[in-house]
Amino acid sequence: SERTLVLLKPDAVRRGLVGEILSRYEAKGLSIEATWFGQIDAATSDAHYAEHVERDFYPPLRTFVTSGPMMALVLSGESAIDVVRLLNGATDGRVAAPGTIRGDLSLSNRENLVHGSDSPESATREIGLWFPDLV
Ligand code: ATP
């Protein structure tokens, strides 16, 4: 079994899609290990997106992810990292495959509802950032 860090971004909360998205992860067979709900500040955004802070798309992304409450989750299961990214779909909701969360529910490259860790190293780093009390 493997753990991954998932974010349901502020658009998911604003649009009332938290239940819909959680249902997809649960129906796939992933387990919810930990949850956090709240609004983050710019420093937490910068820490989470450390690899993107110098990118052109980052300032508006930071404005977006700090714009309202969101949910952070640790999900676990067989190949959880890759499975979550398959369920999430391509970054840009406009081209994400139908059947994926972004493909079915997002029409945006930025407001794309979800985040999932992209590697075991990222998952360890991100879980440590969002859930420092989790061993
Ligand atoms: P995530 O890491 O959130 O699961 P991802 O791995 O598909 O998504 P990244 O390339 O890591 O995408 O980008 C992180 C986030 O930055 C994206 O989820 C999206 O919200 C935003 N983003 C990425 N590229 C762009 C872009 N060209 N324009 C606007 N926003 C972008």
TrEMBL record:
The keyword RNA-binding does not apply. ATP binds at residues 9, 57, 85, 91, 102, 112. The active site is at 115 (pros-phosphohistidine intermediate). InterPro entries: NDK-like_dom, NDK-like_dom_sf, Nucleoside_diP_kinase, Nucleoside_diP_kinase_AS. Pfam families: NDK (PF00334). Gene3D superfamilies: Nucleoside diphosphate kinase-like domain. One of its GO terms (biological process) is GTP biosynthetic process. Belongs to the NDK family. This is Nucleoside diphosphate kinase.
